Amino acid sequence: MLPVQAPTTASTTWTRHAERYMAAINRDPLTAPHALRNDALLAVLAAALAVTLALLVDDGHRPDALGWALLLVSHVPLVWRRRRPVLVLLAVVACVFPYHFLGYAHTAGTQAAYVALYTVAVTGRALRTVLVGIGVITLSVGVMLTISAHEALGLLKASGWVVAVLFLGVDVRFYRRYVTSIVERAERAERTREEEARRRVAEERLRIARDLHDLLAHSITLIGVQTSVAAHVLSADPERLDRETVAKALDDIAETCRSARGELRTTLEVLREDGPPEARGPLPGLDGLPDLAEAARLAGARVEQTVRIRQAPPAVGAAAYRIVQEALTNAVRHAGPEPAVHVELAERQGVLHLSVRDDGTGPAQGGTPGFGLVGMRERARSVGGTLDAGPRTGGGFEVTAVLPLTTTGERDG
What we know:
alpha+beta
């Protein structure tokens, strides 16, 4: 079955032709395709018009063999009018002036000159166009004065056509430059939108990487500690197996796995959604800090928590939650057995001051650095805050952050 084509109306055809004409007008003549072929066709059409005018218009005697030769040869340089407009104009003038001087039909000899003048105006600067116009009019009037003052006066009156052609060329040139600037602005705007989209994608990837690092590092560390507890109980005194302690350790491992699985599912759902970031669901916040402290206690840390702030913006609360989570994970991993950890959050003068310090040994010297501290600093910067981390003077390790509670930073989580 052949496909049914929509009927082509007259308005549709006219619109297509109009679009083609506008595209031809807006195109830069120096870079237009098939320039030589089109200019050769233009030269032939202009020559045909000149021959017709020479035969029909009675404003001089009909050309003889020399007149026809000068008339036709004056149109040949138009084939290269785009490449060398000024030289083409000089070549045309060199043929047209003898033609007019010999008194042949004057109207027929102006077509090639008008085309050459228009090309000079549309491809060059305004100053060059003005100088060329003045030179052509002065030279033409001077040549006509050698014939008769009456002919010179008539040519001077007709010089308005020269000015009109030059103005047309200048106007078209400025119009093309205006259209080009509009297209360039549109392209820059499109590139800006694409760059903004790429930037948002990169930020989203970084956000997901931070979330996965915080979640997996925290959960795996707790699971490792809880597994070590169960293994120690099993191997310490096999004859007096403490079943309750082993069962509790295994239950803690299972609970940590369930919690990690749920948060991991929430994080990865962002990769499957096409909706806005607001559709991600609730962000972790300050209300989740007690759960972090309890998980660290199950891993063997002695955690004390002081929170003197009731609420914070979602982005700030999420950043504080992740910073505390990573700091507790590092304390459980690096501070030694049963470290004492103090978590403090307080609001002072519209700023959230966060501190997590322990009395442990800190990270081992010469170890492979991870991404925990880098991620915490990125969390703080994402809401316009700062973060410092390093060994304490009296021993142990401390993480401090200052997070503004009125932030325009990105929505994190």
